[in-house]
Amino acid sequence: MSGYSSKGGITRRAALRGALALCAGAAGLKSLPARANTTIRWWSTQSSPEQLAAYRFQIAAFEAQHPDVRVLFEQTSDEGYPAQLAAAFAGGNVPNLVTHLPSFAVADYWQAGLLAPFDPVIESVGSDRFFAGTNRVYEIEPGVHAAAGIGNTAANMLWLRTDLMQQAGIESAPETWDELRAACRQMQGRGIYGAQLPYARNSATSLVIVCFIHGAGGQILSPDLDVAIDSDEAVDALEFYRSMRELCPPGATGYSWGETLGAFVSGATATGLYAGRVLVNVNTRNPRLAEHVTCVPFPTVSAGVPPWTFNDYPSVFIPADAPDLEMTRRFAAWLYEGEGYIRQLHATPGHILPVLQTAAEDERYLDHELVRRYRDEIALMSTSAAAGHNLGWESPEHRINVKAGALVNSGILAEMVQRVVLNEEQPRTVLADTARRIETIMNA
Amino acid sequence: MSTPARIARRFLFNVLAWAVVLVIAFPLLWMLLTSVKPSSELFVIPPRLLPGEITFEHYRRLLTETPFLTYLRNSAWLAAGTTLVVISIATLGAHSLVRFSYPGRERLARLVLFTYLLPSVVLIIPLYLLMAGLGLANTLTSLIIAYTTFALPYALWLLRSFMKAIPDDLESAALVDGANRMQAFVDVILPQALPGIISTAMFTAILAWNEYFYALVLVNNDAARPLTTGVINMLVTSFNIEWSLLMAASVMMSLPLIVVFAFLQRYLTRGFSAGAIKG
Amino acid sequence: MPTIRAASASLRLRSLDARYGLLGALLIAPTVLVFCTVIVYPLVSAIYLGLFSIYTPTMEGEWVGLDNYRRLLASGEFWRSLANNLIWTAGTLTLQIVFGILVALMLHRNLVFRALARSLVLFPYFLSTVVAVLVWRWLFNDLYGVLNHLLLWAGIVDLPVDWLGSMPNAMISLIFVGAWKYFPFVVIAVLARLQAIPDELYEAASIDGAGAWARFTDVTLPQLRDVLIVVVLLRTIWDFKEFDLIYLLTGGGPIIGTQTLPLMVYKEAFALNQMGGASATAVLMMLIMLLFMSLYLSRARD
What we know:
Number of helices of chain B: 12
Number of strands of chain B: 2
Distance between the termini of chain C: 33 Å
Shape of chain B: flat
Number of helices of chain C: 12
Number of domains of chain B: 2
Strand order of the largest sheet of chain C: 1-2
Order of helices and strands of chain C: HEEHHHHHHHHHHH
Helix content of chain C: over 70%
Structural class of chain C: mainly alpha
CATH class of the largest domain in chain C: Mainly Alpha
Number of domains of chain C: 2
Strand content of chain B: under 5%
Strand order of the largest sheet of chain B: 1-2
Number of strands of chain C: 2
CATH architecture of the largest domain in chain C: Orthogonal Bundle
Order of helices and strands of chain B: HHHHHHHHHHHEEH
Oligomer: heterotrimer
Shape of chain C: globular
Structural class of chain B: mainly alpha
Radius of gyration of chain B: 24 Å
Largest sheet of chain C: 2 strands, antiparallel
CATH topology of the largest domain in chain C: MetI-like fold
Radius of gyration of chain C: 24 Å
Largest sheet of chain B: 2 strands, antiparallel
CATH superfamily of the largest domain in chain B: MetI-like
Largest interface: B-C, 112 and 102 residues
CATH topology of the largest domain in chain B: MetI-like fold
């Protein structure tokens, strides 16, 4: 009996000692952050390894010039930022600088009075260095900018595999939906799918249907922001989206941007809808396709409707409550400077396109392997993106829609697609229903 | 029963049981195998189970080129801190709920459970405001406090059920022998409840180790980011999923827990029999 | 002799109850303190916020009284989410309990490499939800997933199955992954209790001529009752509140086919930035669980 109890005691003590050691170890491992007079917290949703390297270069150069400043880069994500920023704003513990959020998110925060005017930064960069009209989307109130673009993105380019087109005997890139469907059908087979459109309940699907409705000549909201989605054009768009389902992989019902990109880059699909990141991903992850990819503007319903490019206008903004406003503005302007900005662009050539005319023409920018090799594609994406729009600003005639972020995040548009494609409901009924739901959000 | 029949039955049972175990653990196996495959073997159709070539490149990259170790340290600190706080409070609380009688005791137990019904999604903003007010935003301490909100009711109720199973007589006997209630608690109740305390501590540690949502919203800083959000943030982006690194990270995230459990489960059995005999 | 001693002791214990009440209150004090600061405050604020229309990032808004509740109860989405929530909870909980008990019994017996088997079985519970979801999404993948490949190879299906993007597959996959992830909790609790069942009880039952099944129903189950009551209670609440797994695996889709109440709360709070509506949804959700809890606890006591 005593043998048992002493055995129990030993293990118990051992366990206790182990637990204590664990705690002590953990406590000892907690390191103290280095102290600096000013800390600038910078959040971004874009942080691929190549981009991180470019950011580090910019940060190091800035810190070298300002020894008492420390810049802390903190990653956020497309899915995570709404909650993280909401908490940060509500708690008054905001980052100094946020980059790469789409313009419609900026509009949402701006109208709630959460952002500091960005004009001083634009002035110190030099407003004439930006491409004309680039920052129009941030001019929510006349004369004041809520943010500035840090790049442009042509999100809905049609990517093509020239080798597969050749094999299938397709001579020119499709320009209408009928041609696209036919081409996809011809190239589908032997384990390769024709297309990779997203059909999930996420922002990717929402953005794609916005593109299709404009590609049919329609719009979601009128220039005065009345709901205009319940239209023949939207019916055409939904029917086209539905007709592409059989040309996409079965799992497309779960695709977001990552999966659509992966499907095209891995060679599983013959065409793809995506932005310029295809270029760097093909070259690093699947180089055997590097010679065979190209892009064109996404087809429209007929030759009469011009292509419509979705530019999510990756932004830079400063929260109103950010501490050290002066230094923050200086750092924000620094992001556009010289070699640093060019490194940012080179991290994902063609994906984040220059907003500064001076950078686009800079020898150092043009002197990059991928920028040289895909000169035509990048030029095309640049012009498309420069004339691009998004749900927050559907055409030059449109007022800025500050509810666009809520519309995308609510998933209403993606649900509309799913109801038509997966549930096979009548586009008309679904559109009428969707129009009502959009109305509710616009009036909220 | 004849011996050959018994052996056959034992054999059958073992085969069947292990088949079940392997099916359950198949994702672990898949994770392990994927983590040592070269990236180029990931996207082959049809998928292959065994790697054509074994590489530890992903582990090396994870350990040397990413902040994985910082996240690991944060997670360890979080799990240990939360467990320590929660278990100390809950053990005392459960003892009080089981062995003492005072007005409102049952109602209190219910209330504790009731507070546990609120979804974390709603707690999070008020909690964040609280942390920001205390100057704790973006720290590990804020996460430990946040984790207490869901781990404490859990731990309290589990411990209460474990402690209820300890016969009243044991404490009574100690009291008759002249011990006071705290002595009886330390000498009699604690050793008896130890297996329960250990398994509850394990659950708490696991909860803290694996929590995602609070960590996502309350902490956005590499210095305090735990593994769950750290690994996702680092490897899963809207433009790429680093499957190889992700699987390597998953293996390394699970290993510490498996090792700890392998140690503790032996302890659980032994601790319990010792306690039972002592009584 | 020992019986008399114990009886007199418990008598003495009762007489001392009053004096020890204070000590009892002292012991529970830290718990109460923690609850007041980190739970009751957010809880009260949730009830309060539910009466306002609030923009999440500023946490400012106007009083709307019970409008949030009226709107919710009139919306199809709330009821659909509630139905999904019930289906998910009932489905995954049933699987967890049944598998959990079966596997615990299996692991309680003499098995070769029992320690290894136990570690392997408990592994899904150790695995972070985030990682578990990613591994399953990889297994479910339409192009490179091993699950579809196995089914195609075995000739059970002609085309890859869309596991997560269509109904009812998405709900079934969700329930299944949830069960896989959480049944080890039941295993752990049941195993710990099984080890505490005195062998004499089984010996006595055997002597009385009870077979394996009779020993299970007459000895094991009654002994497990207390643990199971708590386990079911905790797991029900936990599953009902589950957010990470569903959010990461299906995001509530297709359409709102797998959207449960916590996901709806999240959507209201952070996608639509309407904290008032989110809080109201959460309060309703809490009331539903409260109803369940009261019913359950009063039944369990009998």
